[in-house]
Amino acid sequence: RKEVEQDPGPFNVPEGATVAFNCTYSNSASQSFFWYRQDCRKEPKLLMSVYSSGNEDGRFTAQLNRASQYISLLIRDSKLSDSATYLCAVNDGSNYQLIWGAGTKLIIKP
Amino acid sequence: DVKVTQSSRYLVKRTGEKVFLECVQDMDHENMFWYRQDPGLGLRLIYFSYDVKMKEKGDIPEGYSVSREKKERFSLILESASTNQTSMYLCASSLHDYNEQFFGPGTRLTVL
User: Fold this and answer.
1) What is the SS3 string spanning chain B?
2) Which residues of B are less than 8 Å from A46 in CB distance?
3) Which of A43, A91, A98 is the closest to B105 by Cβ?
4) What is the pLDDT of residues B35-48, one digit of tens each?
C-alpha cells in the first residue's frame, strides 16, 4: 500500500522558536506535494505546495528530498497562531488522488 | 478564490434514514472528492469524480453512493444511515490531476 507517514506529535514549542516537520512517502512516482494546515474542527487549508527547488513563504519553508522520499516544513519565529495540525499530502502518481498523512499536531506556548 | 460549499455544517439523523450531503464548487474544477475524517484515523477517501457522471471508489465506499450530474455539484448519499457513519464529512475539489485540493467547511453528521 502506498503510504505517507508523519510524526503525530504533539510538538510543544515555545513562541519564537523554529520547528521542523518531516513527511515520508513511499511512492517514488509521486509528482506533487503539499502542506496543509488544519485547525480544530475546521477543514484543511492549503499552506503551500512543495516544489523540487524548495519554496518559501514568509516564515514557512518547504523542501522536497526525492532521493530519500520525504518533504519537510520549517516554521521560523513561531507564533501562538501557528498552533494547528499540519497535514502533508502526496499525489498518488497514477491517478487523481492525494494520499494524506495523519497530521502532526503543533502547540506553540507563550 | 476557490469556494467550496457544503449544504449543512451540522446534521443529526436517525439510524436507517437516507442522508444527502451536497457539495458545490464555483471554480469549474474537474475533480471532486468526498472524505470522512475521524479522530486518530485521518482523512479517508470515500469516492471521487473526475468528470460529470463519472465516479470512482475510494478507500471506504461501503454504505455510500455518490452522484455528479453537473460539473459543479457532487452529492454523497448514505442509503441507510448507521451509527458508525457518525463523522466529519469533507468535500474537496481540484482543477486537474496533480493539483492541490480545496476543501469545503465540512458537515458534522451524527447518526443516532
Assistant:
1) CCCEEECCCEEEECCCCCEEEEEEECCCCCEEEEEEEECCCEEEEEEEEEECCEEEECCCCCCEEEEEEECCEEEEEECCCCHHHCEEEEEEEECCCCCCCEECCCEEEEEC
2) 100-102
3) A43
4) 999 988 889 999 99
